[in-house]
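Slide 14.
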Amino acid sequence: MNRIIAILLLLVTVSSCKNDTTKTSEETVETTSGETKKYDSLIYPEETHFKSMRQVTYGGDNAEAYWSFDDKQLVFQSNNVKWNVNCDQMFLMDANQTFTDSIAPPMVSTGKGRTTCSYFMPDNKHIIYASTHLGDDDCPETPLKKNGKYIWPIYDTYDIFVADLEGNIVSQLTNEVGYDAEPTVSPKGDKIVFTSTRSGDLELYTMNLDGSDVKQITNELGYDGGAFFSPDGSKLIFRSSRPKTEEEIKEYKDLLAEGLVQPTEMELYICNADGSDLRQLTDLGNANWSPFFHPSGEKVLFSSNFESERGFPFNLYLIDIDGKNLTRVTHSTTFDAFPVFSNDGKYLAFSSNRNNGGGRDTNLFIAEWQD
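Slide 15: predicted structure.
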């Protein structure tokens, strides 16, 4: 999903803003009473859900950091050229680690093709991820615009693989013609949800951990993707672009025929894990995406630019699963996205442009969460 970072940063980096200055993780100020007080300068004053925060990476585009089931490790994707990669590959880290440009974490993908959307398996000894490496060893091209509009490529060489933590592929879970990607695993440890074009449209499917018992979950025209299970495994939250007018439908179908989608208008949808009781959760406009369930299972944290007039900033928001009580969580003036709670609910990993010195780097951050 770093392709969306590349697209959105074309918008984000044109502004000059408060988080474009490099900050240390802790600063000391003198209060009006003359006392000194330490505060975490990575956290903006309005961000009351963050008790503390640390920066994990310092360069490149780093995104989609997902926790192991025991919360001891994370797997994430990066295109940091100083780590000897040309496009997104998967990297493994311990939960307490921090990485500089010169010291790379271990790569757990093949280093070939382009990868996306890794996730831990329940045994904490394997990961799943999507890769194009069977189609070509080289990175596929990444078009950013068509007819003046921002687009995502939907590579038909993506398939889903299982690898051990040394990077050895142990099985291939999909082998259909077309796009198979964006896999995530249920906290119950029994199912995988993923996006596929095998029906001719971008729909959600579930399968067992070994790739068997594939079931189609959605069946309406539009891009359904980025799905996650609720903590009890009973529900799915996902993003979707659902074209309605004849013009929108034609544009969507024409782009899809070229292996492209347009990500600028997306809303969140929620359903039961079998696809029943499907309903639209947000109706905010612009791009609402990267949703993840709050540990309670009663709320969803997601990224959106619905308050933005020029396409940026993107911030994190909470909303109840009945669509009520929308609240803003982050207060960046550029880009916050890909929020993922640890399984114990104590920490939040996310990607942000904060503290990047005004450049285009998108780094990983881990915040201590408080409700």
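Speaker note: The first strand starts at residue 27 and ends at 30.
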